[in-house]
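Deliverable D4.2, example record:
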Amino acid sequence: MRELIVTENCTIDGVIELAGDWFSPGDTDPDVDRSDVLATLQEQRENADAFLLGRVTFEDMRGYWPHQTEDTTGISAYLDSVNKYVVSSTLTEPEWENSTVLSGELRSEIENLKSAEGKDIVTTGSISLVRSLIAEGLVDEYRLFVYPVVVGEGRRLFEGATGVPKLRLVEERSFASGIVLLRYRAASN
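Output generated by the structure prediction step:
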């Protein structure tokens, strides 16, 4: 069975919302070495063949990544080729190659994706969707890229979450930029 992986960029105080300038989608600041982070993201992309998004994040990404003609991160090429699944009750035509709209009951749609042949299913951003996935107990792993900043306000990953199982740390990795990757799984896994 495939696993559903939540990958989020967050601040030390747990904010995942892109409020302010603490994170940019391409992270291409020439003054900061993120080659080790990009290598880790490449490794994760190689282990995933499905990308799950909520409608708002999907539309934001669809409006940005296909137009990045000089993207050296590999993200644009990956997003063009990976199977993308957007959870939406209002979107009918995704208008992005290799995209499928999932408009049925969330648990059923995700269980169908997880039971299909393939590699990991990854979701990122999509705060409302991720919170629903957490509430439904559908998340197998959390990969949190923690940035060394505090923003003080903004939406947080586990804000209002109830029923989250106890998590166990399975990996921690620090990067030259000060970013830290924390990987968690349910303690029962």
